[in-house]
Amino acid sequence: MKILSIGNSFSRDAQRYLYGIGRSAGVPVKAMNLVIGGCSLYRHYRNMLSEGAAYALDLNGMPSDLPLSLKDALLSDEWHFVTLQQYSFESTDYPTYQPYLNELAAYIRRLCPGARLLLQQTWAYEPGSARLAETRYTDPEKMHADLSAAYRQAAKDIRADGILPVGDAIAEAYKRGLSPLYRDGFHLSLGLGRFLAGCVWFSCLTGQDLSAVSYHDFDRETDPAMVEEAKAIAASVAQNYPIAGVPSR
């Protein structure tokens, strides 16, 4: 399974453990991530036009110093999935997605006609965090509702093959008291939060349940009971977001 993400630090969070999750379940994974911190769809679009080596490359969850262009990354392999997302601070404001999203989708499909195009649904900021206070929101539930609506519209407009519902999973995990999910109010925690996101991706992309996932090599000590609950949440949320061409459980 080969995945290319055109993203930022939020796709880095989601991909950190994806390779290891797949390996633990017997599923070979190649996960490449093009990273610019805080990168918006507008900036990705400008990078598409310039064809400059503007991105830092992560491979299988590990960062490198290798610079890469969007075009070279898209042509570097026969990708099964290519993912896009909006900069989280603009994720609730759909006019910021367009026309850049449409242009990027057309470009990706032209260079990678065999890949399925997906959107990663990003997540609301932590309740009470300084980052949330910088937005127009006081309630992360409202932020999540608005960004979810924006991603649904985005998926419709580009005829995406699916949505990776990490935001839904984070919201559900918070309601159930799983902690810590964040490390700074908006990025995911280096253990549980990133693992939950990776499990959402794995479940959506493979159609498999997560019973075979035994990954535990986290960057921070993580409660085993919460790891198991995170797997259950990811599997439950993923069932509501089928990916075109991926068998359902």
Summarize the structure.
The protein is built from ten helices and seven strands. A seven-stranded mixed beta sheet has the order 4-3-2-1-5-6-7, sandwiched between helices. 49% of the residues are buried.
What does this molecule look like?
The two termini are 18 Å apart. It is globular and about 45 Å long. The protein is an alpha/beta fold and 249 residues long. It has a single domain, classed as SGNH hydrolase (Rossmann fold). The protein has a seven-stranded mixed beta sheet with strand order 4-3-2-1-5-6-7, sandwiched between helices. The longest helix has 19 residues. β3 and β4 form a beta hairpin. The protein contains ten helices and seven strands.
| Distance between the amino and carboxyl termini | 18 Å
The sequence of SSEs as H and E is EHHEHEEHEHEHHEHHH
CATH topology category name: Rossmann fold
- CATH homologous superfamily heading: SGNH hydrolase
Strand order of the largest sheet: 4-3-2-1-5-6-7
